[in-house]
Amino acid sequence: MRLELGNIYINDVKLSDTTKVENGVLYVNKEEMLKEIGGDEHIKSIDLELAHPGEEVRITPVKDVIEPRVKVEGPGGIFPGVLSKVDTVGSGRTHALKNVAVVTAGKIVGFQEGIIDMTGPGADYTPFSKTHNVVVLIEPVEGLKQHEHEAALRMIGFKAAAYLGKVAKDLTPDEVKVYETEPLFESVKKYPDLPKVGYVYMLQTQGLLHDTYVYGVDAKKIVPTILYPTEIMDGAIVSGNCVSACDKNPTYVHLNNGIIEDLFEKHGKEINFVGVIITNENVYLADKERSSNWTAKLCKYLSLDGVIVSQEGFGNPDTDLIMNCKKIENEGVKTVIVTDEYAGRDGASQSLADADPKADAVVTNGNANETIVLPPMKRVIGTTEFVDVIAGGFDGSLRPDGSIEVEIQAITGATNETGYVTLSSKGY
Amino acid sequence: MSKKIVHYINQFFAGVGGEEKADIKPELKEGVIGPGMALNTALKGEGEIVATIICGDSYFNENVEEAKATILEMIKKYNPDLFIAGPAFNAGRYGVACGTIANAVQEELDIPVLTGMYIENPGADMFKKSLYIVETGNSAAAMRTAVPAMANLALKILKGEAIGSPEEDKYIARGIRKNYFAKERGSKRAVDMLMKKLKGEEFKTEYPMPDFDRVEPNPAVKDLTKAKIALVTSGGIVPKKNPDRIESSSASKYGKYDISGFNDLAEADHETAHGGYDPVYANIDPDRVLPVDVLRDLEKEGVIGELHKYFYTTVGNGTSVGNSKAFATEFAKELKADGVDAVILTST
């Protein structure tokens, strides 16, 4: 499967009467966009605001972040099974608007929405301080239950990204990257001497409000299976969860998964990157056992020499991570796991809820409990009224002057466990 | 002006004598004695040992409280900028004494401290979490390498400079995790680590697996019909509106609430503060997480003796092992004092 990904670099976003891209500037017709993404009966109001890198702006509570993309050639459309029909995606050509993100925000759904600061110390911790953000502020109708609220927000976010992505369809990309994965036997024939490497992609599926969707299927209900990496670049996997902001994978990160990109860098040269095994993080022990048995089985079946396993969330999924690692290693497949830590605010506690000597190659994306003081910002998009109760906040997090003391757990993407960020942690 | 240091050594390194003199009480001497001389030289005039305290290892370990009190008094009057104990190498009792007194100086006098030991010295295990312990060889023959390492760390502490990693500054890892921004993003580091692992090259994990603290379950309760049972949860059930504002994640506290007036928890009176799971079903019926209704039934049926008047609750989500241990240490005493025979611990 071969995908051409055409990147169009955007250096500014402005409101205008037509939605278009000109000279690297994305112009957005607010009225038209709101009309296109609105209409959900569960939603009282939707508004748009823009936030640019370096501005004194705080966005919170943030639910999802999504990159605008559009399918240009090849079967299917972006977000198959969710916005588009369920055609198998990942081949042909896709265009992406780079440096731009749709950010969904508004009244809190669960406890786990995040904060994005566009400048100051908090900006260093979130990858989304570097993107021009089109913030969709969504207010639900009175009395809406969390499940419907989450679903409504999720869909509006995808629609918003698809709406903006459409303008990229007829543009000439600034660069075109080609990603190709051959069918297994062909790739082994083509690269007989290269080690076969896979990626075990753990998806957050701890339950309602903690779900991820694959081609529209709730990933709680899947058994581990194999995807071409480029399917994921076309939105085969989307976020539907409110897990702690620091280490959930926003849809943006699924589309731009760093492990997939960095494995492709070496594909055909140092390794044969044969594909992605997706698995879940269900809460029942039998599910954990079954899924980790199956990831190990698939690794063996594909005769892999090495895999990278990434986690999403923390605590309960630490057990899935360790089960996957242990069982895959037991199949003789060399494993590296990617996670983050909850070592306490003082950094002195055990970082994971499970451990095993087989997990001897760990990449950590930082201790989520470390605290930070975020100075007041001139403008808040959304509201800071939930800062004390979101995961990572505590009583008194929001100070009278508008500054916020929180664990970095509350910052969107701070300790992302696909290694999308540079934050890490060391023992002292 | 050079900074003041008080140094602690045992009878052997003071040249008083070996095992036969291990029972000597703490003595205070002005200036340097024994290994202090080499340390002083290595400090290059930026720090100076102004006094040395000598104590026998047996005396210290057999009279800990008295020895500690006497030594703290001796140190106090110098108001030093740093307190150094040892190095103790692999001498067990000396290592424990160095760790104990250094810890006391740090805690009670709020003066920075430093010691040195061999990694297998029992004192190292006891105190590495709370102290900087320079890693030394296992005998006094390693003094040559121990002194410069201790002097280096001493100067950093005296000057208020940032302490480097255990490798950089040659101390025993304290197990404290600190964040930093790496040069490469995590995904790239993971791919590079995998390449090394595949090639059989040396690689360095970023998080060495800890020795896991597993708890053996207690034996079964012999007679449930007479047992007083308490409910404890990490599922975050609290009275409505979360009166003590227990955090939705990374809890810094726990709550203790009276359930004597409840036969059944309901949406109107209880809810969950937990941010790590879907709260909808727990909020509709909090008994799903804290089964007061079922325990009341069992109480009536005589299956259990009684349900304890209070339940203890916190949020397990992202809460450190350190905090969890501290909470339970505190309320387990109360449970025992209240005559509770067994606890049902519910999660989420």
From TrEMBL, chain A:
Active-site annotation: 242 (schiff-base intermediate with substrate)
Oxidoreductase keyword on record: yes
Molecular-function GO terms, alphabetical: oxidoreductase activity, acting on X-H and Y-H to form an X-Y bond, with a disulfide as acceptor
Keywords, comma-separated and alphabetical: Oxidoreductase, Pyruvate, Schiff base
Modified residues (Pyruvic acid (Cys)): 242
Protein's name in the database: Beta-aspartyl-peptidase
Species name: Alkaliphilus pronyensis
